[in-house]
Amino acid sequence: MFVFLRDSMISRAVPTFSRTALMRTSVRGLSSKATESPSLIAADRSMALQKIFHQTSIACLALTPVAILAHPTPLSMPVDILLSVAFPLHAHIGISWILSDYVQGATPNGPFRMAIFGLTCVASLGLLKLSVTGDGILGTVKAVWTGPKKEDK
After folding, report:
1. How far apart are CA 17 and CA 30, in angstroms?
2. Which single residue of 30, 114, 120, 138 could bond 92 by disulfide (Cβ 3.0 to 4.6 Å)?
3. 27 pLDDT above the threshold of 70
């Protein structure tokens, strides 16, 4: 796609965007070295965690309808366990990118990132407990709309 700029003296074609320039800016600051281990605290600094972010989005997209269809069956618990890890991990990596863009004091091992990491761990553990000991993620969400159970006299 080109935009034609017309001036009184100059007429030339200028590309509206350059794919290589977009790719360079989207991966700026990411570590792709094999020797570096990806850190969950600074999740926006690793190419490996960026790939995990994309994989968890596909996993959430595929597993959520399966969880809806499989809720009262024995298949529900393994799907809920997978979702209770995938949802917080996906959110954590995404929030790390938001912190990098909008929070000035979000250094790679700073207090903001430690707090987000702690909240991610608490969310994961809570969802895992709900999946293993309770009604599961979907059972709990469905309970919001079903109302209290009526007891027979």
Report:
1. 22
2. 120
3. no
| Contact (CB, 8 A) for 96 and 43 | yes
Burial of 34 (0-12, 13-18, 19+ CB in 10 A): exposed
pTM of the model: 0.71
Give the chain's mean pLDDT. Answer: 79
CATH number, domain 48-144, options 1.20.1300.10, 1.10.238.20, 3.30.700.20, 3.30.1490.20: 1.20.1300.10
**Do the strands 2-6 and 11-15 form a parallel or antiparallel pair, or are they unpaired?**
antiparallel
d(CA 26, CA 46): 12
* Percent of the chain topping pLDDT 90: 41
Angle at CA 140, nearest 5°, toward 134 and 144? 145
Name beta bridge partners: 13. 4
Q: Which residue from 16, 7, 96, 9 is spatially nearest to 50, judged by alpha carbons? A: 96
